[in-house]
Amino acid sequence: MIELTYFGHSSYLVKINGTKILFDPFISPNPKASKIDVSSIKADYVLLSHGHEDHVADAESITKANNAMLVSNYEIAVWFAQKGVEKHHPMNIGGSKKFDFGKVKYVNAIHSSTLPDGSSGGNPGGFVVKHQAGCFYYAGDTALTYDMKLIGEEFKIDFAILPIGDNFTMDIHDAIKAADFVGTKKIVGMHYDTFPYIEIDLEAAKKAVSEAGKELILLNIGDSITL
Questions:
Q1: Strand 96-99 and strand 102-108: pairing?
Q2: The dihedral of CA 149, 151, 152, 154: what is its sign?
Q3: CATH number at residue 23
Q4: Whole-angstrom Cα distance, residue 127 to residue 139?
């Protein structure tokens, strides 16, 4: 069992056997996350799926404050290294790395990736995290892709953290297909309702997932769940 805490948009803190892994922190610029004190967030690792500001805005401050390890693709890792982030580990699509909490594979995502200053953010990706208690998939921003079937063939996915906001990423119907592809019945929603572009009908989304025989988990900002 692991614990997930939601900080809004696409930012989740995952606790695995005492290790804290933070994904895509966009908190301080997000008005909907105004009750979250960024300085109070403790993280051992910060994993970044791609370079857009709504995924990396608080990465530098949180990583430095916690002396955490920043993990992303090569371009993003180097960009943060140049900003003084001492602990960083670069990856690229298809590569895996064992960390103290488990094994991370950086997998394909169909999206774009530009860093806040206009620098190239390299290829966007997602993460499959295999740990002692199980395995989960954090998709990052992505379209539905047949590559997700490869994840289902290689791993037993307990749950998938998937974008559901449409417009820039998958919608809920493609997210259901993505869950089918990776072989899970549990969808943890992200990348929805933060901006007008990605506001969705949550009740309709819940109904669609229920009718597909799956579970849609939508957390309030600041709330936690054990899976």
A1: antiparallel
A2: positive
A3: 3.60.15.10
A4: 6
Average pLDDT over residues 76-84: 98
Q: What share of the chain is helix, strand, coil (3-state, %, to 5)?
A: 25, 30, 45
* Residue 202 domain flag: no
> What region does 193 belong to: left with phi over 0, alpha with psi -120 to 50, or beta?
left
Q: Which residue is associated with the tokens 């890792």?
A: 77
User: Which residue blocks in the chain are alpha helix, DSSP H?
Assistant: 53-56, 59-66, 74-82, 147-154, 172-182, 202-211
Q: What is the H or E stretch that residue 130 is in?
A: strand 125-131
Please give the distance of CA 8 from its chain centroid, rounded to a whole number: 11
Residue 225 lies in a domain: no
Tens digit of each residue's pLDDT (9 = 90 or more) over 99-127: 999 999 999 999 999 999 999 999 999 99
Q: What CA–CA distance (Å, rounded) separates 169 from 193?
A: 13
* 31 in a structural domain: yes
Total number of domains in the chain: 1
Dist CA 99 CA 46 (whole Å): 12
pTM: 0.98
At 98, list the tokens.
């064992």
Residue pair 94/32 in contact (Cβ under 8 Å)? The answer is no
